[in-house]
């Protein structure tokens, strides 16, 4: 099947340039679909794609779909224009089932497609490695994350990400090692640590990309417990979770003292994720769009 993919995305924060770029890219989108006449027009997020562009695209493509790897109802995404566009797609893929009821209520045709991982972008790490630090966290600063990580200031901790907002007096400053880590860099960072911390934040009841990425690479993941996460992974077998500062500290101590348990859970998580790749997600998209 032919697909029109690779549509660019930008926040368009400039009040003058933004509207000009949106009009130009919408026109280019419609022209590309007219020229290619694909079986599937798949837009990834694409907040700039409006209802009219989608209806125009439908004249020259069999199916129009959107894969939205973010919260459609959260700022700065949500606005009336986006709502109209969401309704126009033949299928609107969301990573979290928690969004489905509201999407249905606005007239969309949603389908759930969880996050996944890419074997080329997320290379495996050695399960039998000798860790150089006790706990690592890869992610950017927020007040909430700062509070969680302050609980671990007594451990050999590494923090990677943009933490320039951290107060100068914070004891966590000594643990900030460098900028955000992506792809192979993240794999090397996770390989350095006995425990990889996942502080699910934006969608407090859901899961995030790291849920699959770190597990698939072979890290031992200690994550905030969420209803969605423990539907995807078996707690105590494929992942370990916490929901209070006391439980966080207790589980860090427990699993630092039990490398065999870390190895067993990390191996089970890697096996659990073996087929949960973005290639499979593409196959699922095609199966849903062309039943």
Provide an overview of this structure.
This protein has 291 residues and is an alpha/beta fold. The chain has 2 domains: 3-114 and 278-289, no CATH class; 133-273, Rossmann fold. Helices cover 38% and strands 16% of the residues. It is built from 11 helices and 11 strands. Strands 8-7-6-9-10-11 form a 6-stranded parallel β-sheet, sandwiched between helices. Strands 1-2-3-4-5 form a 5-stranded parallel β-sheet, sandwiched between helices. Mean pLDDT is 92; it is low at 1-11.
Key features of this structure:
291 residues; Rossmann fold; 2 domains; 6-stranded parallel β-sheet; 5-stranded parallel β-sheet; 11 strands
Mean pLDDT figure: 92
Rg over alpha carbons: 21 Å
The helix content, as a percent range, equals 25-40%
Oligomeric state of shown chains: single chain
Provide the CATH architecture of the largest domain: 3-Layer(aba) Sandwich
Question: Total number of helical segments?
Answer: 11
Largest sheet descriptor = 6 strands, parallel
Overall geometry comes to globular
Strand order of the largest sheet: 8-7-6-9-10-11
First-last Cα distance: 14 Å
Overall structural domain count: 2
CATH class of the largest domain: Alpha Beta
The arrangement of helices and strands along the chain is EHEHEHEHEEHEEHEHEHEHHH
Low-confidence stretches: 1-11
| Helix vs. strand class | alpha/beta
